[in-house]
Write a structure and sequence with these properties.
Two copies of one chain form a homodimer. The first copy, chain A, folds into three domains: 219 residues, Amidase signature (AS) domain (Amidase signature (AS) enzymes); 128 residues, 3-Layer(aba) Sandwich (D-Maltodextrin-Binding Protein, domain 2); 48 residues, no CATH class. In chain A, helix 4 packs across helix 7, helix 7 packs antiparallel against helix 14 and helix 9 crosses helix 12. By secondary structure, the first copy, chain A, is of the alpha/beta class. Chain A has 14 helices and eleven strands. An eleven-stranded mixed beta sheet of chain A has the order 1-3-2-4-6-5-10-11-9-7-8, with helices on both faces.
Chain lengths: 433, 433
């Protein structure tokens, strides 16, 4: 049995395995062959154990499916513990650090029958110092980060599903750059236990897939929530363009993209409009930094005390800034966030969705930076669910992403509307390069 | 140099070590001798490495103090990772699980110069199935839980400081039962990274000490926040008795205790009053269970998938209840909590502090249960800071505790008022048994 798996969706793969028309082993072998071919260029994987994955696939083939992802392998950002594999965090401090147990999110997907393909490259401790991953479409460009490997692996067809984390823009931004569907759920939607922490107030587990439907399937497995099962496309009644207070930092192609998206929605009878964020939202970027630095200085204190010489200079600087912060400054930032949360809940309640850039533009040239989280920080800070959908290509020929944002805890609602808009835009990822 | 350390406060001990009038080694040796004598009865410790503690003490004596807890050992609940020691979680699943790194809270105290005395007994995974710890004043009674060993060790004079966690009532209740000062800070005040998780929405790191001043010192170290340094007693202008909707579940002695506390405050000119919680707060106990079970079922999924036969039946039942819960029921419970948070913030804004029972009464007879969290769940669920102060003895001769609750993030304010009330009540712990 031979299959060409790299462009198969996770739902399709799981159904074929459950029906017995494809074995998990054949599926995995096809993905492994693709990875072998592409990995020297893309470098999406931090740790990989071919034999372990194949053993899991053979086990899956020998057992009756018990969950919706039976026999389907997932890529896990290398800050997430997977039993028996290292959790390297892209730091020499954790080079040989093997996880003894699975993170709760990993265990939830095993409960759904999924397997661990391997660990995907992260920026150092999910912050900003990048790993070696390249953009699957053009190796001279960054894939974005910090969930670089998860985004690139899904975009390249190495896996259908991958998991990452977002503290600033670490899921939505690389998903947009790589042209896949990225989902940062509401704060707290997926268990964070067993994942290296940066900021307890912001860290959110998120997903990468090549369709909204596969995103919903992965969310169902990760959360064990019945409201992610059977999500059907629902036409939104009203979508409002939110330029944010950082609109001037988006490239011209992103301005055009959002206008075009609005036009296409209006053309099929979706009410559209524009909403301005009150001035206090302009201070959220600074507040986000204050909260993040204050918290990561504490979360990474063990590493800082014992191994600061093995940290990148930018990370050391952030920790030292965080330790120098006054408690009152941290409290002011938290209070501003709470005010903005109340305000945005009222604003969004008047519409179904906000439409906003997923990133300033295409993936930047070079691997020294993973790009800017300008259009992500505020939504992460507010804890709102955000979905990135690919929407055409920019001047360099790399994908552009739009971001849909819904009210807090309205994740299933966002995915249902996102599925409808994805179909409208015909923007599901296809192997057209 | 010989000292009688068991009843020395942490501030006193740290100052003596810094001045050179007492060595850390002499201090630790005195504590170790006391532990050796008492541990066969109290059984406060899950893991203990005498030689490691003495080596740390000798290191402290050989180095110039760099922080406010230089040379002072702390007891850590056995769900908190301390590098080189096991994190046993009072579960056979983790019998031989050695932590490779320090939890962030442990690292923060090391930064302040503190040392790790050992791991204190916890109920299974910080839930309800108890460990072997007994009440220091009467070994036939429970010390409370789930932070049983931390409370008992501080009450017995084995350490001046210990750290625990509270998801329901796991810090305040054992502190009240054992007659020490327990502090559950606002949700999120102390980093939880490296601590076994039950409920991401509720889990809060808290402290045990024999005075409010030592509590503030430990909070300063744990958080690295400047607002916990130099907390001075401040007279509250208004303290309001909050009987909660579960008042009938408190023993008669607790009713009398709170009335007496109010009388004493009124006698020195503090305005007092009574506040009733709106009816919706009566549903918070059930909402707390829904949220806790939903989340712990996910947080402990790895253990449940692989080792459910090594779990206690009550814990297995909770996990299975949590997995069976509808997502909508979980969302309703979260929404109720948010409504109650808005409501309580307005209620408390009109006063300085709420006064409420720390527990239903004295520590119950027997070790099969750690007692009820009836008077703790709601404050944990709302994320409010809560301080337990000892206030006399009950009919069996065991301590009673009152609980002071302040508005969210007003932790320093609560400790300053708590220090003033502690002095008024002359209720600091003394070795009077």
């Amino acid at each position: 049995m031979s299959v060409n798996a790299p462009w198969l969706g996770a739902r399709q793969a799981a159904q074929s395995i459950a029906l017995g028309t494809m074995s998990s082993q054949a599926y995995v072998e096809s993905l492994l062959a693709h990875i072998e071919r592409r990995e020297p260029t893309v470098r999406a994987w931090a740790h990989f154990d071919r034999e372990q994955v194949l053993a899991q696939a053979r086990w899956a083939d020998a057992h009756t499916p018990t969950g919706p992802l039976h026999g389907v392998p997932i890529g896990w950002k290398d800050v997430i513990d997977c039993a028996g594999l290292p959790t390297g965090c892209n730091s020499p401090i954790y080079r040989d650090h093997h996880a003894l147990t699975d993170a709760a999110a990993v265990a939830m997907t095993r409960r759904a029958g999924a397997m661990v393909m391997g660990k995907t490259v992260t920026a150092e401790f999910a912050a900003s110092h990048p790993g070696p991953t390249t953009h699957p479409l053009n190796a001279n460009h960054t894939p974005g980060g910090s969930s670089s490997g998860s985004a690139a692996a899904v975009a390249d067809g190495m896996v259908a599903l991958a998991v990452g984390t977002q503290t600033g823009g670490s899921v939505i931004r690389p998903a947009a750059f790589c042209g896949v569907v990225g989902f940062k759920p509401s704060f707290g939607m997926i268990s964070r236990y067993g994942i290296k922490q940066l900021s307890d107030s912001f860290d959110t587990v998120g997903t990468f897939a090549r369709s909204v439907d596969d995103t919903a399937l992965l969310m169902e497995a990760l959360t064990g929530r019945n409201d992610f099962a059977n999500i059907q496309p629902v036409k939104p009644s009203r979508v409002v363009l939110c330029r944010t207070n950082e609109w001037h930092e988006a490239d011209a192609c992103m301005h055009l993209t959002l206008d075009e998206a609005c036009r296409r929605l209006a053309a099929v009878g979706v009410a559209t409009g524009v909403v301005d964020l009150p001035a206090q939202f302009g201070e959220m970027t600074r507040a986000h930094h204050v909260i993040e630095y204050f918290e990561l200085a504490r979360a990474l204190q063990h590493e800082y005390l014992l191994h600061s010489e093995l940290m990148s200079q930018p990370l050391r600087n952030r920790i030292e800034s965080g330790l120098a912060l006054d408690a009152a400054a941290y409290e002011r930032a938290l209070a501003l966030r709470e005010q903005c949360q109340v305000c945005i809940a009222q604003l969004i309640a008047q519409t179904d969705l906000l439409l906003t850039p997923a990133a300033p533009g295409e993936a930047p040239l070079g691997l020294a930076s993973t790009g800017k989280a300008t259009f992500n920080r505020v939504w992460t800070a507010l804890g709102l669910p955000a979905l990135s959908l690919p929407f055409g290509l920019g001047p360099v020929g790399l994908p552009l992403g739009i971001q849909l944002v819904a009210n807090r805890r309205r994740d299933a609602h966002l995915l249902a509307h996102g599925a409808w808009i994805e179909r409208l835009f015909n923007s599901t990822y296809s192997n057209n390069f």
